[in-house]
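FORM 7B: Structural annotation worksheet

SECTION A. Query
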Amino acid sequence: MLLATSCSNKTEVIANYDVIPLPDKIEVDSAAQGFMFDSGTKIVVASADSAMTRNAELLSEYLGQLTGTTPEITAKETGKAIVLSDDLASGNKEAYELTVNSEKITINGASPAGTFYGIQTLRKSIPQTGDLKVLFPAATITDAPRFAYRGAHFDTARHFFPADSVKVLIDMMAMHNINRFHWHITDDQGWRIEIEKYPELVAKGSMRPNTVIGHNTEEYDTVPHGGYYTKEQVRDIVRYAADRHITIIPEIDMPGHMQAALAAYPELGCTGGPYEVWRKWGISDDVLCAGNDSVYAFVNDVLDEIVELFPGEYVHLGGDECPKTRWKECAKCQARIKALGLKTDKHSTAEQKLQSDFMTRAAEHLAAKGRKVIGWDEIMEGGLTPGAVIMSWRGEEGGRAAAAAGHDAIMTPYQYLYFDFVQSADRDAEPLAASWGDPTPVEKVYNYEPVPAEFTPEQAAHILGAQANTWTEYIPTTSYAQYMMLPRMAALSEVQWSDPAKKDYQDFLRRLPQLVNLYDANHYNYATHVLPSSAKTTASAATASK
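SECTION B. Predicted structure
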C-alpha cells in the first residue's frame, strides 16, 4: 500500500523535445497516444556491442537521476520499453532517429555514437527533476550533426585539476553533444602527465613554488601549486571519455611553452639554464633548442608514450607563441639553420623556417605511428607542415589560408570562442578573467559561423568544425571553470551541431531554461546573464571566484 501510494503521488510531466542543440526535424503526432515512462519501463539493448551496453547503462543512470526511477536493462523486449539499436542507414555515423508511440520509445543510431546522441535528446527533453512520471508525446525525431569535429579545449597546465574534476568536465561536454576533448596538459607553468622515460618532468616540472597574483602584478602568493596525472589515471580518463563517445586529443605544446620541461631537463634549452617552472603568465623566451639533436630524441620519446595513452587519430603539437629570441643567439640553432640552407625571405624568417622543420620532424614521427598532427595557426609560418590540421585561433585567417592550400582546419577564433574572457561588459561584476580579449557574451558565441561566406564547397569541406577554448591562468577551480563555460557551451553546441539556416537566438533563449534545469540537477555552476531571472548572477560569480 505504501509503494502504491508513493507511485500514485509521482508528479506527471510532459517531455519537451525542443532541446539544445535543437534536433534537425521534430514531428509530433498530437492525435496519437504518447509513452508514459514509469517504474514499469525497461531499457532494451539486444546488441552485444560493449558501447551499446554502456549507452544503456548511462541512459538508466540519467533517468534515475531525473525521475527517481532507474530502469532495468534487458536484452529481451517485453512490455513497455525504451529500445536502443545502432543499425540506422545513414551516411552520417552520428545520426539517429528517435520514435515514440504508446508502447515504446526507439532510439536507433547509425552507430553507438548516434544512439548516444539520441539518448541525450531524450534525457534533455525531461523538463524538470524529481519523483516523476514522464509522458513523452508521440513523435519522430531525425537528427544528425553538421560538423564531425565538435571540440572543447581545457587547460590543466596553468592550474591543475584532479582526475575527478576532468571527468565532470567530460560529462558537461557529453551533455552538449561535444565529441572532441582537446586536453592541454603541458605548459611553462606545469608539466601534468607522467612520462616514464623522463621522470623529472613530473618530479620537478609539475610543481611551482608560488603563483603571480592577478594579471602579472609582480606580487606572488605563498602557495605551492602542482599536480600531475599518472598513466593509469590518464587511461581511466580516456576510457571515461570513450564511454561518452568523446575522443581526447592531447596537447604537448612545442617548441615553445616548454619552460616546465626545461626546469626538469635544462640541457634541452639554448642557454642550459637554470630554469624554473614559470610562476607568471605570458610567453617565455626560453624554448626547446632546435639545434640540439638530443631535443629531437626527447620529443620522439615523449610522443611515443603519449601515443600509447591516447588512441585517437590526432595529437596536438601546439606550435604557437614560440619566440625566436634564443634561437637567434644560439650557436647550435644558427648552425642548424645553415646546415638546412634556411634563409630569410619576404614570407618568413630563417628562424620561422627552423620551427617549420622542427614541427615537420615531429609530425613525421607521429605519421609513422599512424597519427595526424594538429597545430595552432602559427605552424603555417615558415612553411606548412605536410598533412597538419590547422587550429585557427588568432582569427579566421589561419583557417582561410589552410583551406585555400587544401589543408583541413578547425575554427577556434579567440574573438568568439575563448571562454576565459568575461561574459559581460561590466568586468567589475565578473570574476577575474583574461583581460586581453573583448567580452564574449552568449549571443556572440551563438552567432558565430565557422564557414566563411565566400568559401567554395571545396574549401568549406576543409573546415572540420569548431572548438571553444578555456585557458586557466585565472581559473583555479572546477566551479570557476563551469561558470566560465556555462551556458556559453550551450551556444557553442548549436554552432557545432545545427543547420545555420535554422538557428534563432531568441528561440535558443526560450529553450535554455530547460537545459539549465539539467545543470541544476548536476550541481553545475553557471552564469545567468541571459536567463529570465538574473537573481543568481551575483551568487554564481561569487561562487566562481572562490
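SECTION C. Observations
The first strand starts at residue 11 and ends at 14. DSSP finds 19 helices and 22 strands in the chain.

SECTION D. Sign-off
Analyst initials: ____
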